[in-house]
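[Meeting: bench + compute handoff]

Bench side (C.D.) handed over the final construct sequence. Compute side (W.E.) agreed to return the predicted structure before the next meeting so the bench team could plan truncations. Sequence as handed over:
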Amino acid sequence: MKWLLSLFPRPLLIWGSLRLRPLLRWFYQGKRFIDPIDGKGYRKFLPYGYHQVRPNALCPGTLSLERHRLLWLYLERQTNFLTQPLKVLHVAPEQAFHQKFKSFTHWDYTTTDLYSPLADVKADITKLPFANDSFDLVLCNHVLEHIPEDNKALAELYRILKKGGTAILQVPLEEDRETTFEDDSITDPKERAKIFGQYDHVRVYGQDYYQRIKAAGLTPHAIDLISQLTPSEIEQFALQNERIPVGVKCRS
């Protein structure tokens, strides 16, 4: 298996193959780690990262990263979203979730992105082709850090959400940073990866991210699920210490 992965500079190109996932799941099966998304056990997770490679980050069976597994636990343990009939928009759909969400017969599930082959609707997040008050739930995870005018994107998500609807808005957020850092003059890909964490990111979010959510009209919440998990669960699911940003469109 190692020699096969070594042929590709970005192994994710191979891991993305639906045909190879069962093989990888079998090859890495074990008891050290569990992915809550598929409920399977693995002897190891794989390293992943751009500027800084994180050990045991990527599940070879589902392609989930730490943030995906944390989000699934939140959806499963603290919401009824997974079991309720909902109209759902998934922006830049992640492979870790796409097949599973597509199989939900109780969801009216739509995916959108400018470039992703998983997108049902090709669209710019700052100019979405959906009517006002259309969706009960919007999943928009690790998208806004790529968008120069994130205020326009947030305004669009507010517009298309139904009253009482929820947007889950995960981003790379530095918990000890108060103010979001942006600098358009940094254009070198290596420098951007060093400063922003990835070559195609345009900012590093700080705690004022929640003010950006509020400015769009949404009521922000920082879901601290990690503090409610046991140390053994955090280790078994291979999670990082992060909160889940959520915005709710008030009914009034």
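W.E. noted at the follow-up: Residues 48 and 229 are 23 Å apart (CA to CA). C.D. will use this when planning the next construct.
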